[in-house]
Amino acid sequence: MILVTGCAGFIGSNFVHTWLENHDEPIVNLDKLTYAGNLDNLASLSQDKRHIFVQGDIGDRARVDALLAQYNPRAVLNFAAESHVDRSIHGPGDFIQTNVVGTFNLLESVRAYWAVLPEPAKTDFRFLHVSTDEVYGTLAPQDPPFAETHPFEPNSPYAASKASSDHLVRAWHHTYGLPVLTTNCSNNYGPYHFPEKLIPLVILNALNGKPLPIYGDGQQVRDWLFVQDHCRAIARVLESGRLGETYNIGGWNEMANIDVVKTICARLDVLRPRADGKPYADQITYVTDRPGHDRRYAIDARKIESELGWKPLETFESGIQKTVQWYLDNPKWVEGVTSGEYRKWIGKQYG
Ligand code: NAD
Ligand code: DAU
Questions:
Q1: Is this structure's pTM higher than 0.90?
Q2: Is the C-beta atom of 102 inside 6 A of ligand 1?
Q3: How far, CA to CA in Å, does 55 sit from each of 242, 286, 339?
Q4: Which of 15, 94, 118, 180 is the 20 to 30 A CA-CA neighbour of 317?
Q5: Interval between CA 197 and ligand 2 midpoint (Å)
Q6: Average pLDDT in the 295-318 region?
Q7: CA-CA-CA-CA torsion for 328, 333, 338, 340, nearest 10 degrees?
Q8: How far apart are CA 92 and CA 75, in angstroms?
Q9: Distance between CA 156 and CA 10 in Å, rounded?
Q10: Which of 158, 183, 198, 202 to mutate to test the pocket of ligand 2 (most atoms within 8 A of CB)?
Q11: Structural domains of the chain, count
Q12: Is residue 159 part of a domain?
């Protein structure tokens, strides 16, 4: 079996679904269930014996040691993280604790477990660390997209904490020989996306008649990838990635934020027209910019494409159509996720 961390969150839960659709190999899912962890994302698997959920912290050495001894996984995949840039600006402490100290503790548990594995399990073992393109910093309009060789220039507390974790993973390979793989992916979107992030926030605010907040001038560029394409890429890297290597994952789909928001509005105009017949784009509102806001991210995904034969299956048009439809079809999930802690955050961030 494989042990995955943080799989009650957005990408992790999509990974569990995608994995179990294509493999019979069971998954042990270790998740702390922070505000971003949501067992509703995995509700359809409640009777599936191949998914074993364990609540716990990646930084809890004793807990992770015991899980490794109990389940004897052939691989550990680390999705667990604090992931929201705006929250890292308000309070960076949790980001350092989970993304840096937590990853360090997880690496130490895994190293102790791996060191005494018998062959061939030891040679076959993998530690896969899921990371982000934000470690590379920001690009000017004419710069080439981020390749794996681009220097680390993280700009937000979140990006710096992820860059630190990537460095730790690299060092544990170089120094101890731990068989690691790292992936650095661009912006994901799709089902189960927590609605504090741009795309789900805009869909839900639009439907609720609320403003669609655009930071600054809305010309910041992100590369958007449908989440299931990311999950397929991670499975490919786990299967055939070269040890100690990093793989950039992206959709070759750079878009300015304002264009992303206008595309969502246009989809909603067709799928769920406003009662007054006006376009959803009327709700767009420009608000104060994010401090230190990175201007442009773009991913050069040629390495994973040529070495591992991975390519995204969705275009932005097909992926955003599925995503908008998913939020329209799942009002119960939305209701569950937009209570309590979520309302507190929205009040704090947008007033
Ligand atoms: P998310 O915030 O939706 O989910 C994170 C999950 O980790 C939650 O279930 C949370 O409960 C869990 N978690 C947090 N701290 C933990 C701890 N100490 N121990 C155990 N579990 C803990 O995040 P996401 O968007 O699904 O991102 C998953 C990973 O992918 C992160 O490492 C993130 O940096 C990376 N990533 C995200 C994106 C993106 O667009 N969302 C893009 C590239 C990379
Ligand atoms: O690039 C990968 C990263 O993508 C991941 O590592 C992060 O975990 C993930 O959260 C995401 O980070 P971003 O900061 O790019 O995503 P977010 O959805 O928060 O914002 C996307 C863009 O939209 C960004 O330029 C900020 C802008 N934005 C965001 C919000 C929430 C707005 O204009 N208004 C908003 O209300």
A1: yes
A2: yes
A3: 31, 39, 21
A4: 15
A5: 6
A6: 98
A7: 170
A8: 30
A9: 21
A10: 198
A11: 1
A12: yes
Q: Which residue has the tokens 């350092």?
A: 96
Examine residue 285 and state whether it is found in any structural domain, yes or no: no
Phi, psi of 147 (to 5 degrees): -100, 170
Q: Which domain holds residue 306?
A: 2-189+226-250+294-316
Which atom of ligand 2 is nearest to 297's Cα? 1
Does the C-beta of 192 come closer than 6 Å to ligand 1? no
**77-116: per-residue pLDDT in tens?**
999 999 999 999 999 999 999 999 999 999 999 999 999 9
Q: Is residue 160 part of a domain?
A: yes
Ligand 2 atom at minimal distance to the Cα of residue 290:
26
**Domain CATH for 65:** 3.40.50.720
Q: Are strands 254-256 and 221-226 parallel, antiparallel or unpaired?
A: antiparallel
Structure token digits, residue 247: 């793989």
CA of 167 to the centre of ligand 1 (A): 18
- Return the residue matching tokens 């308000």: 90
Q: How does pLDDT run across 244-268, given as a tens digit for each residue? A: 999 999 999 999 999 999 999 999 9
Nearest atom (ligand 1) to Cα of 11: 26
In a domain, 341, yes or no: no
Residue with tokens 């449908």: 226
DSSP 3-state of 214 = strand
Residue 185 in contact with ligand 1 by CB distance below 6 A: yes
Q: Which two tokens stand for residue 315?
A: 């275009």
